[in-house]
Amino acid sequence: MARTPLPRHRLASAVTVALAVTVGTLAASPALAGTPSATTISTLTTAEDVLPLPADAVLYGAGPTGFLSAQISGTSATFRWTRYADGGTTILPKGSYTTSPGTDIVTKLANPLYTLYDMGTGAEPVTFDLSPLGEGYGGARSVGGSLVTTRTNAEGGRDVHIVGMRQGALADETVTGLPADAAITHIDIESPTEFVVLYTTTVDGTPTSRAAVVDVASHAVVEQYETQRTSSAWPEIALSATHITWIERPTDSLVTLATARRGTAEVQRVPLGKAYSRMEIGLVGNWVTYGQTGGYEATMRNSLYALTARSLTTGESVTLLDDLSMTRPGPDGTRVVRGGRLADGEGLYRVAVGENGVPVARLLASTGRPTTLETLGRNVPESIDLDRDPMPVHFDWTLSRTAAFVQLELTHRLTGKRVKLFARRVDGVYRAAWDGNLVSYDNTTPAEHTIPAYNGDYTWRITAPPANGIGPALEQTGTFTVTRKNAPHDFNDNGSPDLLVRDYEGDVSVYNPSSPLGAESPSIEFHSRGWNVYDQLVAPGDIAGSAYGDIVSRDKTGVLWLHQGAGRALAPRVKVSGGWQIYNRITGGSDLTGDGRSDLLATDKAGDLWLHKSTGAAASPFAPRKKVGYGWGIYNRITATGDIGGGPAGDLVARDTAGVLWLYLGKGDGTFAPRTRISGGWGPYGDLVGVGDIDGDGRPDLVANDAYDGTPYYYRGTGDWRAPLQGRQKVYSSYWDGPVTMF
């Protein structure tokens, strides 16, 4: 399982910065007192009192009158002190800073020089220069008006030291009460008068972990508590006037909250579950607060991302915030927390005991960033031309968080067919890439069963559950339109050729054979009944000027009928003329005369070939017939294919009684060049259909179906008259139970 990265503030303690002063300076007046004044935090009572906070601000500490934060960029940072009362800020001179918990003292860290500024009173800074004390001192932090540090001892270990000022001179005191073999792992400061030292020692040959409370005034250990396995990488401990609490880690992932009333040996342990980053804990009255950091940008769910307060007397728990980055001691036993709440967003919160004795979290400063997952911007097309726009089409959203599961659903309003896409994060946005296809049935159908999208109106809908589980899923909807050119053999208005199939009951259905060929189940678009009254069916393309593919049929009395295409349906049939019983074969689908319209060809029983030129008029769709060949009685199938041979006009293929297929290249004047043999073995096929460009390579293709079971096969058009058809591939697998008519 992936671990959530540590928040950036974990790096800040080691950062040494070099920034110029840009706003304000540190005041210098009377000497800094050794102990801070008892100024209390300003009271904020209205929403207008909420202060602004930079979105990338890291909380370093909070005092009675303000808080210290930093904006970190690489190895540099800008530190600023912000006042609660009016939101005024002071940008600190270049350097690295920390605070003295429970006070307004800010310490500039430049070992061996440490400068303490009282940001509440503006007193004159006090500088500690540790160099006269000799070598071996580690980094220091301020506690009240003094420094806490460690120094190498004669045995090679380290002692804890408190360095203060007495009458203008350094006073260095070694903390007493720690065992001689104490290995210091962490020093935690949450009060101006005492701090906690975490260390390990050996008792009766057994390594033991302990937490020692040190009184600053007496520089001595006043209490000690045995701790179980804790994290040296993430020391997690808090201290109040009445309790001490820490996090134990029985394993690398499991965490336990341990709490003791000060001065007692009894430790209350509560298993919390799994945590993969630092736990932030604190004490507020008789409540302990806890939560795992990093929830805002986490990529997995964990209930510990919330800041929770647990009663030390009743065990009752309340949720204070929905995510948190860090907590720091505040004045008067409060906590100041950098985190977020769904109702108020990300910012700085003060946690204090409310009137009913239960802790409450109140927003002090806002970043303006929501804690809920929200849309910050989107780039969604209003219209898509699938013939001209580059594929895939991008749908982009900018979200308030970088970890979400974004799914886009596109739905064609008329048919209800849809496709679901998952968005990936690309260049700072969540991007769903659409290839212009829809799923043929539903989204449980295998992905290969797709069909080109229809023309018309669409809706889009995104759903984005946050990856961290914090807050509700984001949902948004909108609309767009799709346009594409009509194809000659297109009967469902999606710009791709379709296959028309009449079954033994006389029902005609429209199948979309593309995306890809060989799908196990074809996409049935629509069907109509009663077509057994016709003995000839031809789909020649648009011959009547409607911009959609038409159907021409001949009934058993020899009357020819026009079924004009209407996009996704057929208009009522119109009688063309009678007398067509003289023909034994009729085909259409090639522009033989170069006028842009498909024409009709027919052979009579004498073997003559006749051209019926299309007029483009529904009332009279064909011009008087013209004889363009003879001797065609040797063929039992003729099929207009469009331009499969690379010539100047539409072509014709014909199959003789021996099963040989021949190509007739159209010249563009209604006549053909001498025939060219394509190949043999075409006898088992029932119908040959010039269906148009199935595979999208710009050249028309041919479909032939098995005369026995109706299974259709696809032959790819090459555009080369010497070998105009390439191989074969099954279009659908054993879908029909018997012979069918395809056209």
Write up this protein.
- With 743 residues, the protein is mainly beta.
- The protein is built from one helix and 60 strands.
- The strands form 15 sheets. Strands 1-29-28-27-26 form a five-stranded mixed beta sheet, with no helix packed on it. A five-stranded mixed beta sheet has the order 31-40-39-33-34, with no helix packed on it.
- It is rod-shaped.
- Residues 1-47 have low confidence and may be disordered.
Number of β-strand runs: 60
Structural class: mainly beta
Distance between the termini: 56 Å
Mean pLDDT: 87
Largest sheet: 5 strands, mixed
> Strand arrangement, largest sheet?
1-29-28-27-26
Count of DSSP-assigned helices: 1
Q: Helical proportion?
A: under 10%
Radius of gyration: 41 Å
Uncertain segments? 1-47
Tell me the strand percentage band: over 45%
Q: Assign an overall shape.
A: rod-shaped
